[in-house]
Amino acid sequence: MAADGPPRHETPGQRDRSRRTPTKHRRPQPSARTARVVVRLICSATPLGVLAVITLAVAGGLVPAVTAWLTRSVLNDLVAGRHGLGSPDTRRLVTLAVILGVVGLVAGVMPQAQAYLQAQARRQIGLAFQDRMYRAINSFPGLSRFESPVFQDKIRIAQNVVNANPYQLVGSTLQMGQAAITAASLIGILEVINPELTAIVAATAVPVIVAEIVMSRTEARVLWHTTPASRRQLFYGSLLVDVKAAKEVRLFGLGDFLRNRMVRETKFINAERRAVDRRLLGVQCSLEVLSSVVSAAGLVWTIREAAAGRLSIGDVSMFIAAVAGTQTGISNVVAQFGNVYQSLLLLGHFVDVVSAEPDLPVAGSPWPAAPMRGGIELRDVWFRYDSGHPWVLRGVSMYIPFGKTVAVIGLNGAGKTTLVKLLCRMYDPQRGSIHWDDVDIRALAPEDLRERIGTVFQDYMNYDLTAAENIGMGDLGRLDDRAAVRHAAAQAGIDGRLASLPREYDTMLSRIFMSNKDKKDPEKGVFLSGGEWQRVALARGLMRANRDLLILDEPSSGLDAEAEHAIHRQLRDIRKGRTSVLISHRLGSVREADIIFVLAGGRIAERGTHEELMAARGEYCRLFSLQASGYHNAGGTVGGAMSRRDGLVEAGLPGLRPG
């Protein structure tokens, strides 16, 4: 997609190829691209560590062959001396014994050194992969990647690979290389004794390699096939222990329902993996039989040759050690080859994640996001979340003047929150454009655009962090500015509550995690009510109240009437002289906006001031009057708890201004 968006001549009914989401899982295959990316990342993470473990692996691979050859020489010299074929060279025997001792010492120390170096490399490589993956995920400028089930499956597998540590690929590769060196050197020794038998021993590796490739593909395919079930399994399990879900789980008796769902997914996963395990058992047993038959035949031949005097005792000893070592080496090569192959298959998902193109087009040379001077304009904006879904916005055109407050109202599903996401460029419209002072926002860097926007989302987040961090994250540059945090909290009407907590603003707003200070007293964490959390979220957004554009999406939906009235009075003062967009179902809170837009059916149905829209007696007037009548009825029927005037003030009817 070009930087300026879809072609203007594209009709709304055309297929959105750029937003099409695959619905079927593609069978994973290893690729040279995966190997290049992974090897490059591993080598950059710890170049000296990789070099050290490779050096030890090569040395370790040569030890068995050197040991077998030295043992043969010692035995032949000893036997020759006993049979009068010549006096043994004592100095030579002692030298060989010393060399054997040194080789044994190296062989004994080497695994410890390898374990130490591999542990260091494992940590460095794991950190590098983890950092690379989450940097890539964080680099997606929009939201569409997170809404794709297939991409979520890739992320899930990539997380498993990273959490299990990608060093498994390095370790398996090194073990395979070490085993290959051992097998090759021992095959060279066997070649001296019997070339034909050597060829037979080497040939037994072919079916083993083929079997390992097939089984590795099968295991990777099953993992890919069962990943959606694994995610659902985790989902059901998390609901059973999630503190937010605990109320409904117990109230509605959902525990057994969710547990059964989780068990059902687990049984499906286990059945798929059991089938693979059975196939693997059959293949491995068959290959072991083949290997044993070849070893027995070779041993019979060697003993017959030695009995006939054509082989020495040293040759027999070396042959037995070489055959056993060769078959073990080949078996290890094949087994580790299977691990490497499977690791590359799984790391292919990691590479897909870290190599994914941005989900929104980013201009190569973006314009600077300059301070707003004119306003924001939406020009014939059409949007839907996927080509298979209906249009959410259908040709929306609206202008948000600099320094003015614009309100957007409409029924649920009218597209109000979608409009907010488009203004923040979480998505791009399929047709039309959005302009910041006559500059298409697609020509701006998304992070620069968002730096100039302060937003309070309707579906705000509750972070299991301290109160100060929950608010300060609205402007990371001032995260540690306690005065700014408290000022934002005061504007949101939550300062007094947070200041009264056990550790004031350093109190954890969670009973799941605890701060280092509270390790001896984990009960210091607190829960906030829904209304208090909304004030915290509002304070987080108000950390950016000085930005060019302030967007408030249902900022008071969880507050009681008195608190809502106070908040909107505070927000009116904050919005004065600032460009702001206010979305609310409470029409009394939008009546003082400079322009009110009514969204209906994805289109702008009405626009104007409160007075103009009331005089037009359209949808806005109908909704406003409907809310006012509800307050009036409540005041007239509930024992005088709310007078008619109170209800009209809350609704914001003309002539009765709140406050």
How would you summarize what this structure contains?
With 659 residues, the chain is α/β, with parallel strands linked by helices.
Summarize the helices and strands and which ones pair or pack.
Blueprint: H1 32-45, H2 47-82, H3 90-139, H4 149-163, H5 167-193, H6 195-203, H7 205-241, H8 243-251, H9 255-307, H10 313-354, E1 375-383, E2 393-401, E3 405-410, H11 416-423, E4 431-436, E5 439-440, H12 446-451, E6 453-456, H13 467-472, H14 482-491, H15 495-499, H16 530-542, E7 549-553, H17 561-575, E8 579-583, E9 595-600, E10 603-608, H18 610-616, H19 619-637, H20 644-651
Question: What key phrases describe this protein's structure?
Answer:
659 residues; alpha/beta; Rossmann fold; ABC transporter transmembrane region fold; 3 domains; 6-stranded mixed beta sheet; 4-stranded antiparallel beta sheet; 20 helices; elongated; disordered C terminus
